[in-house]
TrEMBL record, chain A:
It comes from Micromonospora thermarum. It comes from the Bacteria. Pfam families: ACT_6. This is ACT domain-containing protein. Residues 5-79, 91-163 form the ACT domain. InterPro entries: ACT-like_dom_sf, ACT_dom, UPF0237/GcvR_regulator. Signal peptide: none annotated.
Automatic annotation (TrEMBL), chain B:
It comes from the Bacteria. It comes from Micromonospora thermarum. PANTHER family: PEPTIDE DEFORMYLASE. Belongs to the polypeptide deformylase family. The gene is def. This is Peptide deformylase. Its cofactor is Fe(2+).
Length: 170, 187
């Protein structure tokens, strides 16, 4: 079974999801994990699906990209085995005046500590820049990481908090 | 232990401040005053009473505003006004009140809910807050220390304002990477 990583991005309009999903359904591609969201007027889809060959999907999506408004990419990926999370889940929130390099500097601190970002979103609202990242940290490192984040944030003139992610399971 | 055991607001109203409040401009993030812990105040000081009146006046002219803290009008101090009267998510309602140097004494029944902020006008976020809360603080003017027992939306508003006084925004407490929402849509 082929596993494919597909991205579609383009100027937002009604029907992008339906158009892409129809093509995939027609080819028998089973959509597994995906995120689809609007980013400042552009609609972005990132998805993993299993089924047909990459070339077939690429060819089937080509007509959608024909007007130059949508860009689609398809590539075959190696399926990953399930691995259990060993880190401790934390949420890092950063906010402050927009400037170059906030995400780069803050995520470098996480990476250097062995932290693995599992989800991240950013928002620019006026001059306010907000980053929220979910990160798995090696057990017992959170305090040190928080101190390093605070120091990097101070250099950037932004604020940061690192809190344990909500562990409730209902 | 229940609400009756505490010295509540009594018959305090903003009119007890005895000074007319001035409507002040509201500060938006990013701004240093919103990110630094506010200082403790003398609740009986004339400037604190004036600040309290200004907070009430500014809150009242701001549509949909259920609470306003001193840092939001540019003053790094632990003073805030709250009024959730008539809000559909409110249960216990204490009307309009101002507290100085307020602290959370007890917090329980945590629940995630959506909230916004006049100082972050373009975003809202999902934040976990206690649905039942005991808060202690001093009334401006008399300086009398009161304990408020509250719940639901008034509890959320109090935690939001106490956070402001500690230099925190709701953005510092959002539940996850997809818990922030844009009010405006950019097309």
């Amino acid at each position: 079974m082929n596993e494919l990583a597909i991205t579609v991005i383009g100027r937002d309009r009604p029907g992008i999801v339906a158009d892409v999903a129809e093509v995939l359904a027609r080819l028998g591609a089973n959509l597994t994990d995906s995120t689809m969201t609007r980013l400042r007027g552009h609609f972005a889809m990132t998805l993993i699906c299993v089924g047909p060959a990459a070339a077939d999907v690429e060819a089937a999506l080509a007509p959608l990209a024909g007007d130059g408004q949508l860009l689609a990419t398809v590539r075959a990926v190696t399926p990953d085995g399930e691995s259990s999370r060993t880190g401790e889940p934390y949420v890092m929130a950063v906010h402050g005046a927009d400037r170059m390099g906030i995400v780069a500097a803050m995520t470098r601190v996480l990476a250097d500590a062995g932290g693995n970002v599992t989800d991240l979103s950013t928002r620019l609202a006026g001059s306010l820049y907000v980053v929220v990242a979910e990160v798995d940290l090696p057990p017992g490192t959170a305090e040190k990481v928080a101190a390093r984040l605070a120091s990097t944030a101070a250099d950037l003139g932004v604020d940061v908090t690192l809190r344990p992610a909500d562990p409730d399971v209902l | 232990m229940n609400g009756e055991d505490y010295a509540g607001l009594g018959d305090w109203t903003p009119e007890d401040l005895g000074v007319p409040g001035e409507v002040r401009p509201v500060v938006s993030a990013p701004a240093t005053v919103l990110s630094r812990p506010g200082g403790e105040v003398d609740p009986t000081a004339e400037e604190t009473v004036r600040l309290a009146a200004d907070l009430v006046a500014t809150m009242r002219v701001s549509p949909g505003c259920v609470g306003l803290a001193a840092p939001q009008i540019g003053v790094g101090a632990q003073v805030f006004a709250v009024d959730v009267t008539g809000h559909p998510k409110a249960a216990t309602v204490h009307g309009t009140f101002v507290l100085c140097n307020a602290t959370v004494v007890e917090a329980s029944r945590w629940k995630v809910g959506r909230e916004g902020c006049m100082s972050v006008p373009d975003l809202t976020g999902d934040v976990k807050r206690a649905g039942r809360l005991v808060v202690e603080g001093a009334l401006p003017g008399t300086g009398k220390v009161v304990r408020l027992v509250t719940d639901a939306f008034e509890a959320r508003a109090l935690q939001h304002e106490i956070d402001h006084c500690a230099g925190l925004l709701f953005l510092d407490r959002v539940a996850g990477a997809h818990a922030i929402y844009q009010r405006k849509v950019y097309l």
